[in-house]
Every structure is written in structure tokens, then in C-alpha cells.
Write a structure and sequence with these properties.
By secondary structure, the chain is α/β, with parallel strands linked by helices. The chain has 2 domains: 2-33 and 222-406, 3-Layer(aba) Sandwich (Rossmann fold); 38-216, Rossmann fold. Helix content is 49%, strand content 15%. The chain has helices at 15-30, 42-45, 48-64, 78-87, 92-99, 114-124, 141-158, 160-165, 177-185, 205-213, 218-231, 241-254, 270-284, 306-311, 344-360, 376-397, 408-418; strands at residues 2-7, 67-71, 104-108, 129-135, 167-171, 188-191, 259-264, 292-297, 316-325, 366-373. The radius of gyration is 22 Å and the shape is globular. The chain binds 5-phosphoarabinonic acid. Residues 73-76, 135-137, 140, 143, 197-199, 282, 404 line the site of 5-phosphoarabinonic acid.
């Protein structure tokens, strides 16, 4: 389902040395030595009753509303956003949601733009609304504030009792103010597993509920992830592209390539790279170490950042995410400049290859990860691939993959400022 290719100017990757390090890391992960490693076997152990409950709740939401507001930030937001962008039409909210009898989905709580919330609340007046609030800690400032706003809106519009039937909460089993409120008000709730951290939680109710509401097949998604959990449970580097990718990232980092630029040629993968930025950035960039993740969307950024890629400081490597089979292709039969390229997808592949060749002339290392198709199954597979690759990369770098001490500092400042 995934394929790895790479082009390096020097081909001296010490695979044997990596093999011995990775064997140790493999066992460390497999035996769940660290906390927050529950994602490792989650797709293999998720209970069917939970999946059925999520599907039934998604149906319930669909029957009640024409617009679902999903409130969350970081790991409680990006996975669902990435999946819906990847698998639903870019015109889903504007057109298809109405046609397919599914609610439009609006994300909130990941920023504090007053303009956005004013416009969103105005927009909701012509919709039947449900709200899904997601916060593992139940105390994160941005989603908490935004949820306060939407709780008031819902109560004003539907009354306290009906509003409670339209609010869904995904949070810790016991801790946090959101859990206390949900229990008191009788919201339908789902639990974020204790042993899975925010950015590793997309395959739990955190991602699964909004994704299921959008009509995406979460059963296939979990099957894709379960398949990946088996495929990448292989300590042999020669047969594990997930570990090969982790080793390559580390090799390049050691050679001063401190920026990883995730590049996509298919727009539907754009938010997947946002999810990747969070996964790698929050997991690996600590203690003065790690590779900074960036993302570019091609061809758009070839006409801007392409200058930097070709000619700028050589402190980066490119990781290109491509898709081999595209469901819908556009014939270029009548296009004047398409030459041998018979279809849009074919031309897009030629653009990718041409950019790679041009950058290689400048010795820019290039890693290409190709996924066979854009499907729920492939999404589940990719999520697991990158979660494991990220954990492995962090251990190779010598940092803890599952904490985020650096994110706390600004929160303390806010607390002090609004006291
Ligand atoms: O990966 C993480 O742990 C973070 O990005 C969290 O997901 C994010 O801070 C949101 O936290 P919470 O779900 O507790 O509101």
C-alpha cells in the first residue's frame, strides 16, 4: 500500500549500524516501555462495540443536524480535518453535504479569530446544528473558550435540555472540566484512551466520530491501520520501509539537513501534511534537536518556494507524498501544451519528476513515499506508518516522542496574562 524511494547524492547510509539501533527501538516500542504507546496496537485491539457505538452516534448526528461544529485543537483537530480533506470533495460543505444528506462540517477551537466565529455563528442560523467538542485534557484554553461560545449559542437556540442532546464530548474518562460538565449535563461522550496522546489519537473516537459523520468508512480505515500495524511490526530494516524512512531522516539530520519539506502534488493531501507537521514537530523538535517539518503544495509552491528549493541554503531535504492511482483523471487530449502527457495525473507525475531532477542537480536529498490510492483504508495505513516512523525517528534522535514540554510555556504566559 506504500512504497519508499529515495535519491541521495552520497549513498553511504550505514544501514547495518541503523539495524542494531532499530532492533533495540523495535523492542522498546513493542514492549511499550514508554507511556503513551497505546497507539501501537490500537487498530488491532479496538473493540467492535466501540466502533458500532461511533457509527450509531454518527447516524444520530446526521439525523439531527445539517451542520456539525467540531471543536478541538492540535491532535484533537488535525487528524479528522486531514482525513475529511483527503477523502471528501473540496466542495463537500458547499454542495455535496446537502446532496448526500450529511451535515456540513465546520472546525472550530483551533484559533481565536473573532471574525471567523462571528461569521460561522451567523452561517449556522440557517442550519440545524450539533456540536462535537474534543479535548483529552478538557482544559485547553482555545477549544474551551470556543466551546463556551457555542454552548451559549446552542442553549439560546434550542434550550438547555435539547442543547444537551445536540452536544457530543470526547475527552478523558475521568479528568478535566469537560468530563465533569458532560457527566452533569448528560452529553453523549466518548473516551480518549489514557495511553494514547493527542497527536497519535486520530484512529480513536477523537478522529473516528467526525470522520464517520462525514460518511467516510471508518471500518476500512481501521483495517488499513491494522494491516500497517502488522506490516511494520518487523525488526528487519531491509523489509520495513517505515524504519528505512526513520533511518534516512536521521541520517540526513546528522548531515545538517535540519528541515524536512513535505511536498504534495495532490491537493487533497494538503491537510495530511499539516497533521504531519504537528506529529513530527511536537514529537521530535525538543532538547535543541530534531528536524523542522515544513510543507509545500505543488505546483503552486514551485512558483514561489521553488526558488529556495533550487537555489537556497542547503539545509533541507524533500519528502514527497504521491498517489499512484487516482480515481478521477482529466484527459488532456485537446490541450495545446500537454505533449506526450495524455492526462492531468500523468502530467502531474511528470512535473514531480522534473522538479526532483532539477533539485537533485543541486544535491538536494529526495525521499518519495507513494501511496497506492486515496481511500479510507490507505488513510488508516498512512497514519499508522507515520506514527511509527515518527516514534522511531525520535528515539534515533534521542528525544522522548510522546511529550511536548515546549508547548507549555506559552500557556503559562496566557494564564498569567488573563488572571
Ligand atoms: O499532541 C498533543 O498532545 C497536543 O497537540 C494536543 O492534542 C493539543 O494540545 C490539544 O489538547 P487537548 O486535546 O487536551 O485539548
Amino acid at each position: 500500500m506504500m512504497k519508499l524511494d529515495y535519491w541521495l547524492s552520497d549513498a553511504n547510509v550505514p544501514w547495518q549500524a541503523y539495524q542494531s539501533q532499530l532492533s533495540t527501538i523495535h523492542n522498546k516500542l513493542k514492549t511499550k516501555e514508554d507511556d503513551y504507546t497505546g497507539w501501537m496496537d490500537w487498530p488491532l485491539r479496538i473493540e467492535q462495540s466501540l466502533v458500532q457505538d461511533i457509527l450509531a452516534t454518527a447516524d444520530d448526528i446526521r439525523s439531527k443536524c445539517t451542520a456539525l461544529v467540531v471543536i478541538g485543537i492540535g491532535g484533537s483537530y488535525l487528524g479528522a480535518k486531514a482525513c475529511i480533506e483527503l477523502l471528501q470533495s473540496p466542495f463537500y460543505n458547499e454542495y455535496y453535504a446537502g446532496q448526500q444528506n450529511r451535515p456540513r462540517i465546520y472546525f472550530a477551537g483551533h484559533h481565536l479569530s473573532s471574525i471567523y466565529y462571528e461569521e460561522l455563528l451567523d452561517r449556522l442560523n440557517s442550519e440545524e446544528v450539533c456540536v462535537c467538542v474534543i479535548s483529552k485534557s478538557g482544559t485547553t484554553l482555545e477549544p474551551s473558550i470556543v466551546f463556551d461560545l457555542f454552548r451559549s449559542y446552542m442553549r439560546e437556540r434550542y434550550g438547555i435540555t435539547e442543547a444537551a442532546k445536540r452536544i457530543y464530548a470526547i475527552t478523558d474518562a475521568e479528568k478535566g472540566t469537560l468530563r465533569a460538565e458532560a457527566d452533569e449535563q448528560g452529553y453523549k461522550t466518548f473516551v480518549v484512551p489514557d495511553d494514547i496522546g493527542g497527536r497519535y489519537s486520530v484512529l480513536t473516537p477523537v478522529g473516528l466520530l467526525p470522520i464517520a459523520v462525514a460518511g467516510i468508512d471508518i471500518v476500512s480505515m481501521l483495517e488499513g491501520a491494522a494491516q500497517a500495524a502488522k506490516v511494520y511490526d518487523n525488526a528487519d530494516l531491509a523489509h520495513n520501509i517505515c524504519y528505512q524512512y526513520g533511518a534516512l531522516r536521521h541520517y540526513l539530520q546528522e548531515r545538517g539537513k535540519v528541515i524536512e519539506i513535505f511536498e504534495v502534488y495532490e491537493g487533497r493531501l494538503r491537510y495530511f501534511t499539516e497533521w504531519l507537521k504537528q506529529l513530527f514537530g511536537e514529537s521530535e523538535c525538543k532538547d535543541g534537536k530534531g528536524v523542522i517539518p515544513m510543507s509545500l503544495q505543488m505546483s503552486t509552491d514551485l512558483h514561489s518556494m521553488g526558488q529556495f528549493l533550487q537555489d537556497g541554503r542547503q539545509i533541507f531535504f524533500e519528502t514527497v507524498l504521491t498517489v499512484s492511482n487516482i480515481r478521477k483523471d482529466v484527459s488532456l487530449e485537446n490541450c495545446r501544451m500537454s505533449g506526450k502527457a495524455a492526462s492531468m495525473h500523468m502530467l502531474n507525475q511528470i512535473v514531480e519528476e522534473s522538479a526532483r531532477k532539477a533539485h537533485l542537480e543541486n544535491n538536494t536529498p529526495n525521499i518519495r513515499l507513494t501511496v497506492s490510492e486515496l481511500s479510507a483504508r490507505a488513510f488508516g495505513h498512512m497514519v499508522y506508518f507515520f506514527e511509527k516512523a515518527c516514534a522511531v525517528s525520535c528515539y534515533l534522535t534521542g528525544v522522548q516522542p510522546f511529550d511536548q514540554p515546549g508547548v507549555e510555556a506559552y500557556k503559562c504566559n496566557i494564564k498569567a496574562a488573563i488572571k
